[in-house]
Design goal:
CATH superfamily: Alpha/Beta hydrolase fold, catalytic domain
Oligomer: single chain
Strand order of the largest sheet: 1-2-4-3-5-6-7
Number of helices: 6
CATH class: Alpha Beta
Number of domains: 1
Length: 188
């Protein structure tokens, strides 16, 4: 009897706390309400395909920059990121792209923990930078109404993939984690 009351009490507490949190957050908006979501397999230069989710604002009125995140942690929950991390950016108007890195989750290939950077100018080796470059190139050609500019963000391992993408960056990569690469900014 005591255990039943405890379980009911804990369940009631969790339900009330969840409702209060939901109310404080103003509800958790579904990204599908504001974005067209597309899942694609983007080919890298060696033919390996990288699982990618693209979120394009439904109310887009002109060309927008791309905000890109590559992760080894899986992108199945990428839509939840808009509520926690990207709300201000989403309100400003960006195309968001999330990608499972090589060999992780739904991406093909072999995962190598912190795959070493290839030598500068080496066109035969692969690293996180080549996958980043190839993905940005594909996005520019295949995502309608982008403005030809991309920015990357990430912390922890995702920060490392961002830095690797900046070693020999695609010309469209103009910002990483708030660092503006001297070529330009995202909005002009």
């Amino acid at each position: 009897m005591r255990i039943d009351r405890f379980v009911i009490g804990v369940g009631l507490f969790v339900a009330i706390a969840a409702a209060a949190f939901e109310g404080r957050q103003g509800g958790a908006p579904d990204p599908a309400d504001a974005f067209t979501v597309q899942e694609v397999m983007i080919p890298a230069r060696d033919g390996v395909k990288l699982f990618t989710r693209i979120f394009t604002p439904k109310n887009q009125t002109g060309p927008l920059p791309i905000v890109f995140r590559r992760t080894p942690y899986g992108i199945d929950g990428a839509g939840n990121s808009f509520v926690r991390y990207y709300k201000a950016l989403a309100d400003e108007g960006y195309i968001f792209v999330f990608q499972d890195i090589r060999g992780k989750f739904k991406s093909e290939g072999t995962f190598v923990m912190q795959r070493p950077a290839r030598a500068p100018g080496d066109t035969t080796s692969l690293d996180e930078g080549t996958d980043t470059y190839d993905t940005i190139e594909w996005l520019l050609k295949n995502v309608p109404n982008n403005n030809g500019k991309a920015g990357m963000l990430g912390v922890s391992y995702e920060g490392w993939t961002t830095i690797m993408g900046a070693l020999e960056p695609h010309p469209a990569l103009v910002a990483i984690d708030g660092l503006i690469i001297p070529r330009a900014d995202l909005t002009t």
